[in-house]
Amino acid sequence: MSDRGYVNLIRHLTRTSSTLPLETIQASIAHYLARPPVPIPGSPTALTAAVLGSPLFRPYTYVKLTALAVAFRHAVHLRVAVHRAEAEQSPASILPPSRAVNVTARLAKWTRATLEGFAGSAAVIRLACASGMLLGLQDWDAELKVTEKEARVRAKVEEEVVLALAEVVDTYAREGSGWEMDFKRSLAAKGVEEDPLALAVLLASQCAQFVAPQRLQALPLPTVVDILLSTIERSYHTGTFLSQASTGVRRDVEDKLTILSKSAFAQAVRSIASSTYIASMASLARFTALSLTVLVESRRVPGWDAIGRTLARLQSLTGTVEKDWLQCPLAGVNEDSDLADDNTREIATATWQVLKTLLFTTLMVLQSILSTVVFVPGPQSTASSSASPLTPSPYAIALDALHTLSHLSFVMPQFGGVASTSEGGLPELKRAFYMALDVLSASEAEAGRFVQELCHHETMSGKGKAVETLPRVLLDAKKAFALACVEQLVPVLSEAVIQSQVYPLCYPHLWDASHRETYESAHSVMLAIFVSHAKNSGVQRPSEPAFTERILPMYAHCLVENSFDGRLSTTQLCMAYAALVRSASSFGYASAAAEGSSTNVDADSMAWFCIEALLDAIRHARAAPVKATLPYSPDAQASSSSSPPAPVTEQESFDIPSEHLHRLQLALIATVPSVSLTLLPRLLAEVKAIVVSVSLPSLAHDASARRIEEMRAELVEAIFRAVSQDVGDSEKDYAIEWWYENREELVLVKAAARHPVFDGVEASAQSHALNIVSRL
């Protein structure tokens, strides 16, 4: 007796159209592939051939081909369920293992029978069905071990995917005759058929990662990469989707932004955001990255040429987006309240989603390219005669990658930027960024040229009338990216480049905390300059003080001025000041050792100058607890001309120490591991005097007393950590001995009111046996 459902399915498959929904046909195909009726035909081969030869799935559209892929994937799942049911029903306990139901073997037999029905069908249809089967087998591979136990069957499915894709590429990638191209254009204009090449790479991208690399090598990979890039470019409208933003955006009476719903800009954004290709962009980017990797590893010269073309196209795509974003009114929007209505918010949100997707796409491809550059030798390294003069070098590839990322720097603040240390950052962004800089830093000449180019571009972008019309957030993002690049390349830069290019780029941002990433990056670059100079000062010591040594006093005062609330955090200030003192302590030590000198007075003098600047700030902040204002800060200069400072009353001088003062005290303690053994006794005496000065006054309230106890405990804990964990080996013995001698005195006790400025450090330590060395 025949199965009526099966017969009806065959009838529908023979027609060009069907009254049944596509989902119903998809479910029927999966059901009857997994449970072919007996006796007609008893095997999935006939139904497979009927499905692949059916006119119902022509002309090709993504919806139809996806339905086929899903049907074959579900068929694998249903077939596994059938064999499992058979295994459960068989009396396995009384049958020998040779006669027990082997689910994996029976699934492999069914797979071979299904593949027999693929013969003679169209390549696009075969690709859709084979990709579905491969995904179905992969779903069960961890449990059934198909790849291990039935390797040949798994290989045949992978080969079917590769052969079908290669046939599609060979058929459609070539330019056809005039009438053929006209016919294809007419079909596309009527919306009848989608681009078979784009459909093919989209289907293949969803399963390519499960195909063995040695089988992917059979593909025409340079052509496949070009097709993938063309598909990616078309998905983003070649980067021009922002070009008409200015004509579709208005300002209402409240100066809020309104995006016209029917404008070309709104329609373009909606079209991209709802596109099938954007939804599958992760698969497309992954397939592009995989194809480039396999190509370079198997055919080095064509692979590196393909990398060059890929970077050029990505750079063009992202450059177009950046150019249009400069003129886009959305670039100046900082708050959701700047948008007039829900429709505008919807378009703005969709725009940012598209931009973020573009960044993810770019990063996925760049990571593959940069990993290849790092781990696979280039054609130039092997002196291959087949290498073209146009084949890019590793440094050129790294430069192109950085330029591509620079075009998207305005998107990076959405993820914390490239220099972010927070957990919310984007690891893929940092990986690609720092990998490109690592490759570039191998060439001092290329790194120097890149930094000069960056600094020149940022200097020019901050001048002229055009800068007034550009959004501040965009300029800050570009500058933060440039500073992050410079920070990593400082060790390979010459002093001339640092003095003429890098320092002028950083200086304006050292006091401007309005844009946090730029502000922190500028300080990171300055610290990198000092650290790099300290490492190189022993290699060659010029007769005159180096530029880095000349700017050290300025930066020491700069850090003190940035110790107030809203600027450097306590942790940042402590780390920065410790690094500055450590660098100053290292200036010239290697040269002194080579000359036979046991100490270096200049290095110790520079280190103590930094400490003295911090001590002066601590005294000044303690003398003015209401509002600490440094004598060299802009605020102090402005206030000195207007009115004299109010006298500090006795009650104010004994009030709870300010948080600013506490931050400075912690920064001083953080410098303990950074000084030499020569300066360590002197610094520890100052630290002890400051800690002892944080005592409980007789008039302190309960809240003030608790806070003073907390501050004292934090200071003592910081000292213990510095002495026990952070000091160097040569200073360890003295530091530990000092701690055991003074630890009881560092414990908070209720003391009479005293003032460290007017009483002095010497007076505060009169009762102790320590001999405090006079300051420089």
TrEMBL record:
InterPro entries assigned to the protein according to its UniProt record, in alphabetical order: PEX8-like
Region entry Disordered, spans: 633-653
The source's domain of life comes to Eukaryota
Q: What is this protein called?
A: Peroxisomal membrane protein PEX17
Composition-biased stretches (Low complexity): 633-643
